[in-house]
């Protein structure tokens, strides 16, 4: 479920905010790591 929002956010950054491809890649990398960490620690 959260991954859907992550993709929507990244699309927003690219389309509405006109962020560079590298910026989008970096956001994706670090936010994905956070989501993975959060899922692992949530018990």
TrEMBL record:
Assigned keywords, A-Z: DNA-binding
Domain of life: Bacteria
Listed Pfam families: Phage_int_SAM_1 (PF02899)
Chain segments annotated as transmembrane: none
Core-binding (CB) domain sequence ranges: 1-43
UniProt GO molecular function: DNA binding
Any GO BP annotation: DNA integration
UniProt protein name: Core-binding (CB) domain-containing protein
Species for this entry: Candidatus Magasanikbacteria bacterium CG10_big_fil_rev_8_21_14_0_10_43_6
């Amino acid at each position: 479920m959260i991954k859907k929002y992550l993709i929507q956010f990244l699309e927003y950054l690219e389309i509405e905010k006109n962020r560079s491809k590298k910026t989008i890649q970096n956001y994706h990398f670090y936010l994905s790591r956070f989501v993975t960490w959060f899922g692992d620690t949530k018990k």
